[in-house]
Amino acid sequence: MIELIGLILVIIGSFGLIRMPDIYNRIHASGLISYGIYITILSVGIKTSSTLFTKTFILVLFLFIVSPTINSMIAHAAHKNKVKPYTGGKK
Amino acid sequence: MINEILLVGIIISIIRLVKGPTLFDRLLIMSIINSIVVSIMFIQALSEQNTLMTDVSLVYAFLSILGVYALTKYLVEK
Predict the structure, then answer these.
(1) What is the C-alpha separation between A32 and A28, in angstroms, rounded?
(2) How far apart are CA B4 and CA A19, in angstroms?
(3) Chain B interface, mutation test: which of A40, A42, A79, most B Cβ atoms within 10 Å?
(4) Which of A3, A91, B17, B66 could form an S-S bond across to B29 if both were Cys, CB 3.0 to 4.6 Å?
């Protein structure tokens, strides 16, 4: 039942990737997808088996550390290459 | 059922991969699709109690993150 929360988060985040106007806003939506993935993997790993739970925990910990780092590096690269942020039509 | 819904997430993200105006959108979608593929592989391995496939998904996660890291490092220092 808990994995439904994670799947709903994944679907909402992927719609946010379409709807958001800017690269800097789309990174927030990608964080939502990452949290949905953590919740889904952890709930399935707890429910099915106890022997494979250490590997589940290692994978979730790895993604939990590395995914915000990669998002931050993509934002830094976009800022270095002079991508303009979305201002809503105003200057 | 879980894998199909995650696959719907990939298919919705591919729309942004095709439309994306800059290179960085495509890079972001690449890392997101890699994460979702890792989760699909791991959930399938958990439901089959397959120990080998969990190792494969761990190595796939590491290599995919390494590829995105190299591309962003190149784009920062260009």
Answers:
(1) 7
(2) 22
(3) A40
(4) B17
Residue B59 is which amino acid? V
Cβ–Cβ gap B35/A37 under 8 Å: yes
Give the pLDDT confidence score for residue A91 in this predicted structure.
65
The interface predicted TM-score (ipTM) is 0.88
Question: What string of H, E and C letters represents the secondary structure of B48-73?
Answer: HCCHHHHHHHHHHHHHHHHHHHHHHH
> Running DSSP on this structure, what letter comes out for residue A1?
-
The closest of A55, A60, A2, A74 to B69, measured between CA atoms, is A74
Minimum-distance CB partner of A70 among B22, B36, B65: B65
The model carries a pTM of: 0.90
From the list A7, A14, A55, the residue facing B2 with the nearest CB is A7
